[in-house]
Amino acid sequence: MRSRLFSLLATLIVFSCAVLPLHAGSPEDSWNSGAKTFDGVMRNQKLSVFSHQALKNSTSILTLSQFAELLSNDPKKLDALIASIQRAGQKLGKPWSEFGAINAEEKGALVRAIQSSDKSFLNSFPVMTVPQMQDFLKLYGRQKKPASATQFPAQKTLLLTGRPQAAGDGEFLENWGNDIYHGDKTRHDQSSAYGDNQALAQALNLLSLNRPGKPPKHTLVFDSLNFTSVEDFLTYLLANGNAINASDKRFFANFGGLWYDNQGQWASIVTPLFADTGVVLPSGQKLIVPVSHAELEISIHGPRINTDLIYYFSDEGSAEFIPKAAENKPWVGDRVVNSWTGMEAVKIINRAATTRRELIRKANKYHLPMGGYGPLGACTDIEAMITGNPIYPEIRNPKYYSGDMTMDAWAANLPLDGKNPPSLERVWDSLPISNLSDLKVPQSLPILAELKRILGK
Fold first, then answer.
1. What secondary structure does DSSP assign to 353-417, as a single string?
2. Is the N end or the C end of the chain the one with fewer CB atoms within 10 Å?
3. What is the pTM of this model?
4. Nearest to 387 by CA among 321, 336, 432, 324
5. Reduced to 3 states, what is the DSSP secondary structure of residue 118?
């Protein structure tokens, strides 16, 4: 018998797919609904990019219930929203129809929730246990085929301009009608060059594929020199006057990625995913927390190089270096857990390169869809292997880490979630905020305040 949770989650995912594509440059957005992961709808949609000059100074935040209340006051928008959900539900097909694609009953429940702005339903939705997260990804993966092997060049020449440059305005925002937009603002930090960010990310992704102790299949040419490993290339940059830094970062996973234009007043919609940890606090409340996204942020700056990158395992099914080109939503938090400089940073970045190479090998070996996202873990699992910091939740299936790859040894030293409740300290340390005054997910304040008191923080 299908669970009500899967039914409700499918409802929200259908809603998300109907109006919200994923933008590849934003933080994961580990559980972010969108074009690449929940993509049954997106191939049939047409996108229109929004020029978001008006968003630059926006800091407004709306909870999902407040957003629903605004929609409920406009019958036309509400009808259009429900119609798009209906169309999405018809396109998703199996296995969605088995656990909650929109039917008349679901539609009625969603309409009532939107019209009533039911805070208990909307502001704390969706909530999943770790086993439910794993089961959901397994169900989705059944309709996906393993990706075909990507062809990478044997040799690449890295050309860098060093000129500060941002991505284009509106490059990461899309207009989906009814005053709803999805995506992120362009990052306008002039300390880095977007084109160079892209070129350096491609270079590191290529070098990551070479296996230590094996003949290299890929060569990077830079300064008329040949490099075949991430570590050697970064060591060269370090020795030639470039500062290299890496940071272990946390944000709340952005499930929806929504902006709303309310008559010219722009607002970001608070849409986290909540994890039921299985812990019951002394007050009798369940310890249900917004799931965090984890990523490695990298900066390399010097006489000729001005670059900022991100590395994480994405729900698009890829672990790769990408340009840091977009700003985060104002509600997701931003906490640096640890940072490294110089050769220590080089070693951490090299560990990230190892996870990229070995995740690809594992996904191919076991014929896993979505690059192994879910069975091989999520962003939190892979970041924990890179840094040694056991982030909550860790959702990987241990049967894929029982071999002799480097990652297998790293995984063996980390906890697994799903069977036993996590420690309270680990849950707190995984959050992307240091102070509750910085929390922009108001429904979580009472629970996190109690957690803080228990820990004596």
1. HHHHHHHHHHHHHTT-GGGGTBTTB-HHHHHHHHH---PSP----GGGG-SSSHHHHHHHTS---
2. N
3. 0.83
4. 336
5. coil
In angstroms, how far is the first alpha carbon of the chain from the final one? Answer: 43
Higher-pLDDT residue of 298 and 16 is 298
In one-letter notation, the amino acid at residue 387 is: T
User: Would strands 265-270 and 274-280 be described as parallel, antiparallel, or unpaired?
Assistant: unpaired
Is pLDDT of 91 > 60? no
Task: Write the DSSP assignment of 126-161 as a string of letters.
Answer: -EE-HHHHHHHHHHHHTT-PPPPPPP--SEEE----
Give the three-state DSSP class for 76: helix
Taking the C-alpha atoms of residue 414 and residue 289, their distance in angstroms, rounded to an integer, is: 21
Record the tokens describing residue 361, joined without a space: 């090998």
**DSSP H stretches of helix in 226-341:** 230-239
Residue type, 255: F
Are 266 and 179 in contact by the 8 Å Cβ rule? The answer is: no
Q: How many helices (H) and strands (E) does the chain have?
A: 13, 16
Q: Residue 185 in contact with residue 326, Cβ under 8 Å?
A: yes
Edge-to-edge strand list for the sheet holding 335-341: 319-323, 306-313, 292-301, 243-252, 335-341
**pLDDT tens-place string over residues 325-361:** 888 889 999 999 999 999 999 999 999 999 999 999 9
User: Rounded to whole angstroms, how far apart are CA atoms 196 and 186?
Assistant: 16
362 neighbors 376 (Cβ within 8 angstroms): yes
DSSP conformational letter for 453: H
Average pLDDT over the chain reads 80
Report the distance separating Cα 301 and Cα 317, nearest Å: 29
Of residues 98, 102, 71, the one with CA closest to residue 87: 102
The residues pairing with 309 across neighbouring beta strands, listed in sequence order, are 298, 323
Q: For the residues 176-186, what does the mean pLDDT come to?
A: 75
Per this entry, what is the length of the chain? Answer: 457
pLDDT band at 263 (very low <50, low <70, confident <90, very high): confident
CA angle 422, 135, 396 (to 5 degrees): 50
